[in-house]
Amino acid sequence: MCHVIVTCRSMLWTLLSIVVAFAELIAFMSADWLIGKAKPSSSEDGDNRTGGSQEPYRPTLGIYGRCTRISHMQLSRRDTLCGPYAENFNEIASGFWQATAIFLAMGIMILCAVAFVSVFTMCVQSIMKKSIFNVCGLLQGIAGLFLILGLILYPAGWGCQKAVSYCGPYASAYKLGDCSLGWAFYTAMGGTILTFICAVFSAQAEIATSSDKVQEEIEEGKNLICLL
């Protein structure tokens, strides 16, 4: 018989697992890993006629994508164009970034799988006599290691030609040059820390769902068990 067991710790672990998976996925897909050196907007004739200011902008560069500004001749309109600069895996700017993409993708796939499974832990707490929480916690720990490897290798690619074109000639491995780190890198780093917190917290979720109080309510015949 299926018992729906909801505890404060198990729900917190589930929500945190989902948040971490989405945060890492969004960071991976973003082009805001590196913020390039400031570039002045193109001085169009329309700018001069309307007296518009030439405000500088900073293009951004991701693992496989980029954002840059395109100026239009009419009405001084400027559009920010974002999209992948690499049409396939081999066109990613650096071998280190290729390795980063592989490790991050592996970690994110594991996190997404755990996030999906975590939703069903309210109904199913074990498979083949093994706790789902413990298995998921182990997988989150493995995913965290993949993410760490990806984040360590990523700065080694700052010396590639693509990064140098954004960050200036002083950019090299582990040296940003004229660039700065964007929100995507910090999000990926924060998500990695939260991944290990999730892995540790999964043990608390297991303890909460197998506590004596839960067992007592199961023996009383309750199918829906909610504990704070």
User: Would you tell me which CATH topology applies?
Assistant: Butyryl-CoA Dehydrogenase, subunit A, domain 3
Number of strands: 9
Summarize the main sheet: 5 strands, antiparallel
Write the CATH architecture name: Up-down Bundle
Main sheet strand line-up: 5-4-3-2-8
Query: How much strand content do the residues show?
Result: 5-15%
User: How would you describe the shape?
Assistant: elongated
Order of helices and strands: EHEHEEEHEEHHEHHE
Tally the helices: what do you get? Answer: 7
What value does the Rg take, in angstroms? 24 Å
User: Could you estimate the helical fraction of the residues in percent?
Assistant: 40-55%
* Number of domains as seen in the coordinates: 1
Overall pLDDT confidence: 83
SSE-based structural type: alpha+beta
InterPro entries: LHFPL
Region (Disordered): 39-59
Subcellular location: Membrane
GO biological process, one term: single fertilization
Keywords:
single chain; 228 residues; alpha+beta; Butyryl-CoA Dehydrogenase, subunit A, domain 3; 5-stranded antiparallel sheet; two-stranded parallel sheet
Summarize the structure.
It holds the Pfam family L_HMGIC_fpl. With 228 residues, the protein is an alpha+beta fold. Helix content is 51%, strand content 14%.
What does this structure look like?
- One of its GO terms (biological process) is single fertilization.
- Keywords: Fertilization, Membrane, Transmembrane, Transmembrane helix.
- The chain has 228 residues and is of the alpha+beta class.
- It has one domain: Butyryl-CoA Dehydrogenase, subunit A, domain 3 (Up-down Bundle).
- It contains seven helices and nine strands, in the order E-H-E-H-E-E-E-H-E-E-H-H-E-H-H-E.
- The chain has a five-stranded antiparallel β-sheet with strand order 5-4-3-2-8. A two-stranded parallel sheet has the order 1-9. A two-stranded antiparallel sheet has the order 6-7.
- Helix 1 runs antiparallel to helix 3, helix 3 packs antiparallel against helix 4 and helix 4 packs antiparallel against helix 6.
- It is elongated.
- The two termini are 23 Å apart.
